[in-house]
Amino acid sequence: MKFIEKIKIFNFKRFDAFEYCAREKRNIFVGDNETGKSTILQALDIVLTGSRTRVETLGLESLFHRDAVTRFLAGDKDLNNLPILRIEIYLNEHANIALEGINNTDETVCHGLRLVCEPMDEYGEEIQAALKQDDPLFPYEYYSITFSTFAGRAYTQNRRFLNHIFIDSSLIGTEFATRHYTKSLYEANTNLVQRHQNKHAYRQNKAEFAGTSFAALNEAVGGVKFDIKNDSKSNLEQDLMITEGGIPISQMGKGNQCFIKTEFALQQREGAVPIDLILIEEPENHLSHVNMKRLINRIEESTQTQIMIATHSNSVCSRLDLHNASLLSPSSNRPISLHNLSDATADYFVKAPNNKILEFILSKSVVLVEGDAEFMLIDGMYGNLFSEKLEDSNIHVISVGGTSFKRYLDLAKLLGIKTAVIRDNDGNCQKKCIDNYADYTQENIQIFYDRDDENRTTLEKCLYQDNEDLCKELFEPGRRTLEALEYMLDNKADAALKLLEEGMDRLVTPSYISQALTWIRE
Amino acid sequence: MDKRVILAVAGAGKTTHIINSLSLDKRSIIVTYTENNYHHLRHRIIQKFGFIPETVTVLTYFTFLYSFCYKPFLHDKYRAKGINWNTPPGFTLRLRRSDKIFYIDSSGRLYSNRIAKLIEQETVLGHVQNRLSKYYDQLFVDEVQDFGGHDFNLLKSLCSAELDINYVGDFYQHTFDTSRDGNVNKSIYNDFEAYQAHFHDVGIIPDTTTLSHSYRCTPQVCAFITEYLGINIQSHKDTSSEVLFLTEAEQIREKFLCNETVKLFFQNHMKYPCLSQNWGKSKGQDHYTDVCIMLYPAAMKAYKDGDLRNLNASSRNKLYVACTRANNNVFFIEENQVKQFSC
Fold it and tell me: What's the pTM?
């Protein structure tokens, strides 16, 4: 089995220097928009495809790390400091002499492939002249595009060292993507000899067709003749398509295409060259919930293929085991891997319904609360205290069931997310709020609760005591038989809603909550 | 692990020995010095298997040096753009061996005779050995007698790789130093015993028996070479032939004009309008039935004095090459006797 062990990226798109140690089976990239999830997949696709033309078509200008270019042009423009674009793919050891060598930035003998775009030495003078002009442009024209193995051997798109397929949902439906995909699959399922045979047979059939069906026609017209084209634009590979139930896949819905493509790629035919790697870009974009689940199940079953997925979906991320997930952040050059997460926690997120895993992971500051009432009121309380909205301060509030707090706190520990936990003391704050979280309380994690075990055991009691007049006004008028506090305890959500709608401007925030909000805002 | 250098005689079947050692279940790498022999080996392998099997790799020595040793381990550091086959300029000999200029010319090409030194200097020998051990079960180096200078040192260093090693060559067919660099290994081809000792010292067993008999030369020719050139060679043949010195003008004229018999000159064979070749250049040719060897004045004198063995080593070896081209008779003619025919 061949698989990617590590990726290193320099001066490519968003990354000036990036490194990711891959997992043998599944790799999930999560991250906000513009953090480079898709860039990683694209980088892999480019190097594994080995097509110069492709790089030229994309244009070095769009591939180079913008800052590196700007920085160079703003600096002393020394030729020695011209940025070099490098993508290195370190592969597992599988005894391929063509791949093994020390030509990599790790400077160790191992298997690997790379793309290097660097200024060509022989154009040194021209580059210097170009840079001397006022307001010079970056000399992309003088850059070479070289695909080579770590053994120093150049390769082209004709040589596939690792068989991969890129399912890019943003391109799904485009003719290019479909053709590219069809070609990959065709090549993965046939060997060179078969392909030549097919090609030959196809041409022969065309010739026969022209010879017989056009015979009468051509005789009639005399002199000039009708024939069937045979060139780079009309051949077997161009005419190939994939169908299911007689329907060409390019005619299907995008969601279905995505599903079928993945499914097809995962099938490992006997005797065919196996597909070593599937790259999937945001599969959730075009998939219904049901198809999404099917897709995930299918991916889960596959054992032979390495998979890399970029996703925004909670279910993709958690169902495929959080251990495989890596978080990309705009500030860091190394994705944060969740492989150190405790098994129990990872397992929890696989099974827990409707978890807010990505929302949590992607936040810098989070307030975890235990019920709907807190969730509803907290934004208003924050507004009362600081005259701004939680959103604008980049603070997220997540409502968490009683036992799950620690699952989230495990993640907070690993990822360094600043987390405030707001809890009721339920009559025993030592046990419930102090001892219970002893292992978690640290610089970025604090627990907030009221210390009064007698009278202030829940949010409602605290609210009532701090806002007795308001509560009586809102909840006691004669139509109710219950006292205000009793009503509030029995109808937590309704009471919170009413407070939110009618009493927010007068509500006094219980001190443990304001402490929490003050701390999280720091 | 079998490590040996088989010192063969001319026509003893060096290539056949290598080809016979190849099999589909052993990963073999064969390195040879000359382009000619490279094609010959490929040809013989295809003859044996019908194609070049995936397990067999044939490389010329410089491809081996450049693509197998240099590129995987030093390419990023030196970024060479090829090989410079000329002798490096004299001043470079005074440079430190750690100086890049010693190895690489101003247009970025590596000096051919110093690539082996670069491998050693950059301490990537270990990597090269590992690469050999990992990907191959046996290494053959043919035409070992052509290795001099730094290349000879590399040959010795390779023996620590963990695979079977068979070096094959004919000491006396060493006719020119192609990769000399200053004084490095300058005199290894002066003395057969000392040459063997070089290998012995690094654990490579010198083997002078396996390929000690020629399939090409007759017992008479072998006896002549052993006696007059002082080079031990025996014959597998049971046919007999003659070694004759021609003196009669008519005989000389007839041989000179004979289109079946090749005339071998020490040098400048092109000056003579006949089927001819130079001694040294005839190396590798094995289809001549009779050969007619022209003796230049100094060789003539040595011949008369029965002292051919004391010609300088290079000339003696070339003469050995010339003599051993014959599948049958060897004739000698004094070169001065054919001067009249030159153009």
Answer: 0.82
* pLDDT at A293 (0 to 100): 78
Residues of chain A contacting residue B107, judged by C-beta atoms under 8 Å apart: none
Measure in Å the smallest separation between the Cα of B83 and chain A Cα atoms: 16
Calpha distance A212→A204 (Å, rounded): 12
Tell me if B131 and A121 make a contact (CB, 8 A cut-off): no
Q: Which residue has the higher pLDDT, B4 or A183?
A: B4
CB contact under 8 A, A100 and B72: yes
SS (H, E, C) A424-481: CCCCCHHHHHHHHHCCCCECCEEEECCCCCCCCCCHHHHHHHHCHHHHHHHHCCCCCC
What pLDDT digit, counting tens, does each position of B127-175 carry? Answer: 999 999 999 999 999 999 989 999 999 999 999 999 999 999 999 998 8
In chain A, where are the structural domains located? 4-22+51-156, 165-320, 363-521
pLDDT in tens, A275-328: 899 998 888 877 777 777 788 788 777 777 899 999 888 778 877 888 888 888
Q: H-helix or E-strand containing B28?
A: strand B28-32
Which among A95, A121, A152 has CB closest to B72?
A: A152
Cβ burial B17-26 (10 Å sphere, 16+ → b, else e)? bbbeebeeee
Q: Evaluate whether B28 touches B189 at the Cβ level (below 8 Å).
A: no
Best of A102, A114, A122, A153 to disrupt the B interface by mutation (most B CBs within 10 Å)?
A102
* Backbone dihedral angles phi then psi of residue A64, each to the nearest 5 degrees: -70, 145
* CA distances (Å), origin A497, targets A211, A379, A380, A381: 81, 12, 11, 13
Asked whether B155 and B144 are in contact (CB, 8 A), the reply is yes
Select from B209, B147, B156, B130 the least CA-distant residue to B181.
B147
Q: How far apart are CA A312 and CA B282, in angstroms?
A: 74
CA closest to B126 among chain A residues: A109
Nearest CB among A95, A121, A151 relative to B72 is that of A151
Q: Tell whether the model's pLDDT for residue B89 goes beyond 70.
A: yes
**Which pLDDT tens digit goes with each residue over A44-98?**
999 999 999 999 999 999 999 999 999 999 998 898 999 999 999 999 999 999 9
Report the complex ipTM.
0.81
Higher per-residue pLDDT: A208 or A303: A208
Q: Note the maximum CA span of chain B.
A: 67
As a 3-state breakdown, chain B gives helix, strand, coil percent values, each rounded to 5, of 45, 15, 40
Please give the DSSP secondary-structure letter assigned to residue A64.
B
Token digits of residue B95: 């440079």
Are B171 and B201 in contact by the 8 Å Cβ rule? The answer is: no
Which residues of chain B are within 8 Å of residue A109 when distances are taken between CB atoms?
72-73, 127, 130
Taking contacts as CB-CB distances below 8 angstroms, the residues of chain B near A151 are: 71-72
Ramachandran area for residue A394 (φ above 0: left; ψ -120 to 50: alpha; else beta) = left
The 10s digit of each residue's pLDDT in A478-507 is 656 678 888 888 888 888 999 988 888 889
Instruction: List Cβ neighbours of A279 (8 Å cut-off, separation of 6 or more).
Output: A41, A44, A45, A164, A165, A166, A167, A168, A308, A309
Rounded to an integer, what distance in angstroms lies between the CA atom of residue A406 and that of residue A109? 43
- The angle formed by the CA atoms of residues B100, B103 and B108, to the nearest 5 degrees, is 85
Q: At B41, which helix (H) or strand (E)?
A: helix B35-49
Residue A119's DSSP bridge partners are: A143
Does domain A363-521 match CATH 3.30.70? no
Identify which of B8, B7, B11, B6 has the alpha carbon closest to the alpha carbon of residue B218: B11
pLDDT at residue A271 in the model: 61
Residue of A322, A273, A61, A237 lying closest to A160 (CA atoms): A273
Supply the pLDDT for residue A480: 60
